[in-house]
Write a structure and sequence with these properties.
The protein has 96 residues and is mostly beta strands. The chain contains one helix and seven strands.
């Protein structure tokens, strides 16, 4: 699954992906064990990452110099149940 957003090169933004809806379908309710972020396209920078409330992965992104091109960051989580999910955020750099 891919999500799209925009940012300016000088912005530093926390992007979060909630897995709560997926976990609500599981019995018992699952939670994130590990979360890994990576830049898969472009020149944005991943400054930090964390897990919030056991069901949300957060990655802090800065930079990006290629105007109007898409940059991508990917989040992969592994749950305590052993299930694995991957989501991608596509970021378009805009002059603001």
């Amino acid at each position: 699954m891919t999500f799209e957003t925009t940012k300016a090169p000088n912005e530093i933004i926390d992007y979060s992906i909630s897995y709560a809806a997926i976990f609500a379908e599981d019995t018992p309710i699952d939670q994130i064990s590990t979360s890994a972020w990576e830049v898969t396209k472009g020149d944005v920078v991943l400054d930090s990452d964390r897990i919030d409330d056991t069901d949300k992965a957060v990655g802090r992104v800065s930079g990006g110099t290629k105007w109007n091109s898409y940059h991508e960051v990917k989040n992969t989580i592994v749950c305590i149940s052993g299930q694995k999910y991957t989501r991608t955020i596509r970021i378009q750099i805009k002059r603001k």
